[in-house]
Amino acid sequence: MFKIIEKTELAPKIVKLVIEAPQVAKKALPGQFVMVMAQEEGERIPLTIAGCDAVKGTIDIVFMEIGKTTVLLGKMREGDFVPTLLLGTPSRIEKFGTVVCIGGGVGVTAVYPVAMGLKKAGNLVIGIVGARKKELVIFEKEMKSATIALKIGTDDGSYGIKGFVTDILKEMLEVGTHIDLVYAVGPLPMMRAVSNLTKPYGIKTLVSLNPIMVDATGMCGACRVTVGGVTRLCCVEGPDFDGHLVDFDELAKRQKSYLKEEKEIMNM
Ligand code: FES
Hints:
- It is a single chain.
- The radius of gyration is 18 Å and the shape is globular.
- A hairpin with a 6-residue loop joins strand 3 and strand 4.
- By secondary structure, it is α/β, with parallel strands linked by helices.
- The protein has 3 domains: 2-87, Translation factors (Elongation Factor Tu (Ef-tu), domain 3, Beta Barrel), CATH 2.40.30.10; 92-207, 3-Layer(aba) Sandwich (Rossmann fold); 209-268, no CATH class.
- A 7-stranded antiparallel sheet has the order 6-1-2-5-4-3-7, with helices on both faces. A 7-stranded mixed sheet has the order 11-10-9-8-12-13-16, with helices on both faces. The protein has a two-stranded antiparallel ribbon with strand order 14-15.
- The chain has helices spanning 22-27, 68-75, 108-120, 140-146, 165-174, 188-198, 234-237, 248-255, 259-267, and strands at residues 2-11, 14-20, 33-37, 44-53, 58-64, 81-82, 84-87, 98-104, 124-131, 149-154, 161-162, 181-185, 204-208, 224-227, 230-233, 240-242.
- The protein binds FE2/S2 (inorganic) cluster.
- FE2/S2 (inorganic) cluster binds at residues 213-216, 218-223, 233, 235.
């Protein structure tokens, strides 16, 4: 059990928790996630580590209150304890050249540590951040610190350019911007659209998947995704996979399998 030492509402229904977890903070690498429970007997959900401070022994997690567990987590206060388990394979951090790091919605909090790691590895990192509207744009300051240029888009045009992250990426591709790698985290349709855009250009594209997880030990198979025709387990082999090889149709179907139950629980 780890103690919540700071709680901040970054935007409506988007909460950041700073959790005291010295061992996790010491070991965590960009791209890894933690399994978090809001109740002892409750559902476990994967949340990417948005930041960590090995000296203070803390990790940051950010989530949007959209399901039962995230709503319960959002009700927790500073001083409360939350079970947390470090998991996942770290992102590949090496020198690729020019890397475009794309974060959609809360996904930007997962992109930020990877963007920072890539910057430290000597890459030229360009950031693209997208949100529905201005008040939902988060981690702008953090992303600016990790990139040489940051482009922001909102669906309603209330901040940055009016459009999706894919509109910004498309324009960069059409004007011939040299890109060696794209790393994208956000809603499934966004990651699929980014992968479809870069495929004809042959630009390697990594996406961080967030399928349903149950035991998170590689035993239950709940988090399976098909990548290049092969079944992979996101909890132990992910969350990063080659976006050009992910079967997004199958994944989208699996993501919707518990929608009815989730709605019922939320209405209880
Ligand atoms: Fe059970 Fe990954 S969550 S195998």
